[in-house]
Amino acid sequence: MALELGLEPNFFRRLERLTLLSRRLGAAPQKGIRQSRSHGASVEFADFRDYLPGDDTRFLDWNAYARLEKLFIKLFHEEASLNLHLLIDTSASMGFGEPGKLTAAARMAAALAYIALARLDAVTVAALPGAGAPPLSPRRGRRQIHAVLRFLRDLEAHGTLNLTPALRRYGSHPAQNALAVVISDFLDPDGCSEGLAYLRHRKFDVVMLHLLTPEELNPRFGGDRLLADVETGTELDVTASPRLFRRYQAALREHGDGLEEFARRHGMAYARVVTTTPLEEVVLTCLRQRRVLT
Q: What is the pLDDT of residue 44?
């Protein structure tokens, strides 16, 4: 069953002023295949987008205005473009919740992909563990958002995922000016630190988007229950009690805090996102505060 992303064209238009940041490429947004101010030999016209208030009027396409009576900004190609890699956990645990974590992941991936495509950066999308369908090959230009959305809608949550080998396989290819956004619940009993560190070793800038559902933050059940792991099938008899919930929430906080501390020590960006948070708030507030976007 295809994922229902529920994204409106007006939302995408609001993203056109945003730019992805790469810590490895510097604190300021790289020009890349973006709105370039240089006029060297490496620069050539690549595409255009609608004019927005505040844009540099030197890059207005007056020929287009004469024909269409509408303002467009010209975008130029430089050699140092940003390559965005969206790596999405599709293990069975990502199907949990309402909305499911995989739906929230796909919506966030679509927003980030469009921001990159609007700036003519290259976008690759891959499902982890990556044993099924191949990644969506690198795309450029806003029109490629349709291919990205088709790929995202076809994602399914199933099976298990060991993040470290999956990330090592993906990162085995050389990276240049590459930003890897890993979107996952990071529920891997073997941990993910080695895989994330390997991406850094392979010259990827890394962003970790950690998804949680309201049900995971505040589980609501009582009495004796038989809980089953959706990925391994392992079952556990529990008796709900205030003490059990306190221990659970302490372990959940410790897990998230550990991921955030790991990201800080290794120069990665980290954001904890609840699936019910409006997408506009995630993109326009949360990710900008964490210097993923500007």
A: 57
pLDDT at residue 25 in the model: 56
The domain that contains 203 carries what CATH number? Answer: 3.40.50.410
Q: Do 59 and 143 belong to one domain?
A: no
- Cα of first residue to Cα of last residue in the chain, in angstroms, is 35
The span from the CA of 79 to the CA of 121, in Å, is 11
Beta bridge partners of 225: 238
Which of 93-107, 234-248, 269-283 is predicted least confidently?
Answer: 234-248
**What is the count of structural domains for the chain?**
2
Give the DSSP per-residue string, 122-133.
EEEEEEES-SSS
What contacts 78, CB < 8 A, 6 or more positions away?
Answer: 31, 32, 33, 34, 36, 38, 42, 43
Whether residue 4 lies inside any domain: the answer is no
- Residue 184's CB: how many other CB atoms inside 10 A? 25
Per-residue pLDDT for 219 more than 50? yes
Long-range contacts, stretch 78-81, CB < 8 angstroms, 24+ apart? 78/31, 78/32, 78/33, 78/34, 78/36, 78/38, 78/42, 78/43, 79/42, 80/25, 80/30, 80/31, 80/32, 80/177, 81/30, 81/32, 81/33, 81/34, 81/120, 81/121, 81/122, 81/177
Residue among 172, 177, 175, 125 nearest 146 (CA): 125
Give mean pLDDT, residues 42-58: 63
Q: What pLDDT band is residue 76 in, cutting at 50, 70 and 90?
A: low
Task: Report, as an integer, the average pLDDT of 77-94.
Answer: 84
Q: Cα separation of 186 and 162, whole Å? A: 9
Give the helix ranges, DSSP H, for 185-239: 193-201, 214-217
Judgement on whether residues 181 and 194 belong to the same structural domain of the protein = yes
